[in-house]
Amino acid sequence: MSTTSAQPLLQVSDLNVYYGESHILRNVDLTIHEGKMVCLIGRNGVGKTTFLKTVIGLLQQRSGTIHYQDGQLATQPPYKRARAGIGYVSQGRDIIPQVTVKENLLLGMEALPGGLEKNRHIDPLIFDLFPILEKFLKRKGGDLSGGQQQQLAIARALLGKPKLLLLDEPTEGIQPSIILDIEHAVQRIMKETGISVLLVEQHLHFVRQSDFYYAMQRGGIVSSGQTDQLSDDVIKEFLTV
Questions:
Q1: What are the residues whose beta carbons fall under 8 Å from the beta carbon of 12, sequence distance 6 or more?
Q2: Integer Cα distance of 85 and 69 in angstroms
Q3: Short-list 182, 185, 90, 94, CA closest to 141
Q4: What distance in Å separates the CA atoms of residue 162 and residue 86, rounded to the nearest whole number?
Q5: For residue 144, which phi and psi values (nearest 5 degrees)?
Q6: What's the rounded Cα separation, in Å, for the pair 214 and 103?
């Protein structure tokens, strides 16, 4: 499927990011259109997570632009980006282990207008997507399995009603059955809400669910195209260890 028929939601141009004096992201260009899934692939350590953290505002670019909807994100702190409709599920999931599943979910609604003071109702769609969470609402987040924690992290991000969802390696270390559950949930939420997704992933089946891919090497984009045209050579180069 082509991404050119939809309106650009996120447009990153000539992005450069440093850790101290180490040049991590090099002149990165990437575009995401409304209602599309874009996958960022590459071996470990090439800068994929750094890119996501820069989009959400946890890291600041040295140069380049990040346009989201009609505005520039360069000076916006992470909480304002979340309230503007960017959800983020980190590689480490970042659920709070000491509080319950329900309390973790409610935190996702801090991104909504009025925050938790005005938003306490958990959308039933969340439990339709991830039934195990409704069963475990009173269980501590830290008592869930890795796959259940990943479902909780995604559900929490979705409760902020994002227009763009950033997912960093959502299938890492998860059993195959839950990987399929997560794939199906992401596809369904895109279909039903029109959300866009930027996915960092190594699992080939999930990668192939995306509309468009960008391949990263040494902090720069070295290949891109429609995912249905992703060649075996590119897969071998960027998706195998």
A1: 28, 29, 30, 31, 55, 64, 65, 66, 67
A2: 10
A3: 94
A4: 5
A5: -80, 155
A6: 36
Angstrom distance (rounded) from CA 211 to CA 208: 8
Domain assignment of residue 64, yes or no: yes
Strands 8-19 and 164-168: unpaired
Q: How many domains does the chain have?
A: 1
Query: 180: domain range?
Result: 8-91+159-238
Task: Say how many CA atoms lie within 13 Å of 229 toward its Cβ.
Answer: 8
At residue 175, the pLDDT reads 85
* CATH assignment at residue 181: 3.40.50.300
pLDDT of residue 236: 79
Closest CA to 67 of 45, 88, 86, 90: 86
- At 72-105, the pLDDT tens digits run 887 889 999 999 999 999 987 789 999 999 999 9
Residue 218 in domain:
yes
- Per the DSSP assignment, residues forming a β-bridge with 224 are 214
The residue-averaged pLDDT of 168-180 equals 88
Q: Is residue 128 part of a domain?
A: no
Residue 17 domain-assigned (yes or no): yes
